[in-house]
Amino acid sequence: MARRSGGRQARIASRKSALAEDLKPVRAGIPGGQYRPLDEAGIAAIDTTVFKILEEVGFADATDHCIEVCTAIGAIVENGRLKFPETVIRDTLDKCCRKVIMYGQQAKHDLDLSGSRVHLSTAGAAVMIADPEHNEYRESSAQDLYDMARITDKCEHIHMFQRTCVTRDIDDPRVLDINTAYNSVMGTSKHVGTSFSDPAHVQETLRLLHIIAGGEDKWRERPFVSISCCHVVPPMKFAKETLNCIRVAVEGGMPLLLLSAGQSGATAPACLAGTVAQAWAECLGGLVYVNAIKPGAPAVLGTWPFVSDLRTGAMSGGSPEQAILSSACAQMGNFYGLPTGTACGMTDAKFPDFQAGAERAYTATSAAISGANIVYGSAGMYASLLGACPESLLLDNDILGATLRITRGIEVSEKSLSFDVLKDVCLGNKGHYLESAQTLEVMQTEYIYPEFADRSSPVEWQEQNKPVILEKAIAARKEILNNYHPMHISDEIDQQIREQFPIHLPRETFGRSKI
Amino acid sequence: MARRSGGRQARIASRKSALAEDLKPVRAGIPGGQYRPLDEAGIAAIDTTVFKILEEVGFADATDHCIEVCTAIGAIVENGRLKFPETVIRDTLDKCCRKVIMYGQQAKHDLDLSGSRVHLSTAGAAVMIADPEHNEYRESSAQDLYDMARITDKCEHIHMFQRTCVTRDIDDPRVLDINTAYNSVMGTSKHVGTSFSDPAHVQETLRLLHIIAGGEDKWRERPFVSISCCHVVPPMKFAKETLNCIRVAVEGGMPLLLLSAGQSGATAPACLAGTVAQAWAECLGGLVYVNAIKPGAPAVLGTWPFVSDLRTGAMSGGSPEQAILSSACAQMGNFYGLPTGTACGMTDAKFPDFQAGAERAYTATSAAISGANIVYGSAGMYASLLGACPESLLLDNDILGATLRITRGIEVSEKSLSFDVLKDVCLGNKGHYLESAQTLEVMQTEYIYPEFADRSSPVEWQEQNKPVILEKAIAARKEILNNYHPMHISDEIDQQIREQFPIHLPRETFGRSKI
């Protein structure tokens, strides 16, 4: 009994001390790829179709600049469509950036997108906030965006903050774009993704980011904001204004997310294989343009095909077809050896309920274990991207921790196979492993423990007055928003920004005093 | 506009007609295995360790009969432990049954466990019912078991009913075992799994099953009930009484589930690789005994390692470690080419909430795509198997449908790659695929539609008065239990059974008139 109690005390002591970073059970960038929804023949057939689409169908609506730089490297204009012969794609694949780093404002948040390394990010342009406390959907505001950035900053397993909602209280598109970037980078020091409706807004925001970075050269060394570009209106039509944004971003050293967001059965083929092929063709077309502007410019291939519920035409982000589409796209990304992001972890539910948990979990987990370099939209998104839920970020953080733990998988080594431990326990008639040194040693490195999920027994749960997980999350959201104001950007820099840009929210809102 | 409306009407007409069985997007037995948490070297190292454990450590507490028949084929007794040299295991692997069929009372429910074919089942021995309508846990009863069998009978994606809860209103262990089998087979015509505390109960229940089958020969042709045997008390100790049950079951033609349910860090090594190795060693040890009694007797390898939350020692069925343990066990099962069941889809939550959805989804999906032949415990289980929730079966059916859709994956063919459809849409300036013949053609075969999950927009959801998914499930549970009484067993047979066995529930409860 004494020994047993000793073991238990040691375990208690052990879990009270903070875990060194390299001993944590999971971290950003764990390699995926153990899940391969496509076999070799399937990959080859999709690859062939991708090249055929680019060569024989090509893109409508290229800009003059796009046509100019792409034809200069071998692209062809035919019947008003910009087509890419195989050699053009192969040349692009030879010179493009294969190791994109998504820098944080702080180096500890840098994300290396090489290989099959997996990272998890928010993303979306929700027009509403899902408010489970008041059981309602309401318009999203600039404050909401800042709040979600702050909460994300506290969530270990959400590695990047791509803007989640539209700041609907700002009418002017220029002011909206600037404030979207500003509120995001003020709310978190993790890498930020945002978007722009006009190349002039990209230009102006770059100036703002130079101030934060401490100069343009510093920004170019560690660009901590990426631009999300829907460069294509599926199927196979370029978005002219976005191509113009791409040009400014590439020249300004801003990493790009080249986004193809077709919807199967509507703007992409109803057959999933065809949707994957179209998504990859559309993203590779964007990559040709980016590299024609500047070879090696950092770009993430954003194969984000979505699913239509063909009974209604509505998008279904929580469907199992979404899980396999995104996973297959990630697998193709690993095949091409390109930094690949895909959208998974969304739900069609309105609030964090049973449906939401299930849909988020099976979609996010599938995409992660398939080796997506960034799983966008994996936290906070509801009603198929129409709603964003701040509380959910905290709950999703648990799911994403679990997702990463699954992605890490099982290490097999002589030590972990535990034969000697087993022999000792069995032949020594010890009956159990509770007192084995190994058990204490690996309890923090082999296992991850959730923050909100309830593992109590029914009796303990009753003694605790039957806690409700959503209520715990609502309380935690309030606690963070009342007390947590990241200060990675100094008052002086903030003041400089405010003197030069139309910043919407008063300093007090940001937990800072008036200057 | 007219064309578009025509397409929409055709889609509506199409979805109203019932789908032929072979056109359904998913079915029982879809092959898994696309997810491989272990690499080749990991599989080989675990395999080697499994053989070492069986040869060098062996089992304590074998029965005389087990020692007799196993030593007759080469097993060795050393220091009171029954050890299996490699040749004994290899011989067993040569002669054992690799294509187990879990028969239903109706042939449409037969489950072929060969290859990596995936099936989903309930399982558990919950002592409580999780009642979300009244926000409480209460003792489970015989009626509850019958009710859960009936609900399962209505759930397309739950392919088998292994008993979910203990009939705590029956004290006598013999009466309990008989009524557990009876209530299950009366409630569903799907394959039933049950368990027994005494070999005499197996014997007696076999007589009951002969009556239902229409004679012992008919039973032996299509045994529709399997016995769940915890033949081992981990680590590496046989359970004597269960070995005696195994003997009776094998001789009586009842398929077996050989269950190793160690708990990592407690009754199995804390390192997951070691837990997988121990689970496989324990199950293969059981398989040697079964085949020593009768070569080729149908047995499912039940590698069910569980996870301890090492902070408290409590089991955590919803943990990500559970997902990878079970998936790795399934992968080893495919490696050995043996019919393999594992436990996944459980949750630590108390009711169908966000946590429950997430934990069920990531565990069940991982196990399915890893190619587990039966994912046991994938529906209805709460509080780490302590509670069973009837309503949840209905909600879980949606998740399991999605799980199967993910398992099916993406078919890649010239047709599904849709190049000609894409070319037609893009070069014909059609702008979308909504009117493509292919879209209408595949909307039912390529996509699965959930029953309870809500895909409405926030506006529609508000117009519908903000439906709550759990309330929909509670209403559906009531509807089924009030109105659905399976009648696959005739009144005459029921009467025969009642004359010979201590049947607990009155006929009226079963929706039948008194005779």
CATH level 3 topology of the largest domain in chain A? TIM Barrel
In DSSP terms, counting alpha (H) and pi (I) runs of 4 or more, how many helices of chain A? 19
The helix fraction of chain A, in percent, is 40-55%
Low-pLDDT windows of residues of chain A: 1-6
Record field, number of beta strands of chain A: 19
Radius of gyration of chain A: 24 Å
Q: Tell me, what is the CATH class of the largest domain in chain A?
A: Alpha Beta
Q: Rough shape of chain A?
A: globular
Class by SSE composition of chain A: alpha/beta
Please name the two chains that share the biggest interface, counting residues whose Cβ lies under 8 Å from a Cβ on the partner chain.
A-B, 128 and 129 residues
CATH second-level architecture of the largest domain in chain A: Alpha-Beta Barrel
Average the pLDDT over all residues of chain A and give the rounded result: 95
Number of domains of chain A: 2
Strand content of chain A: 5-15%
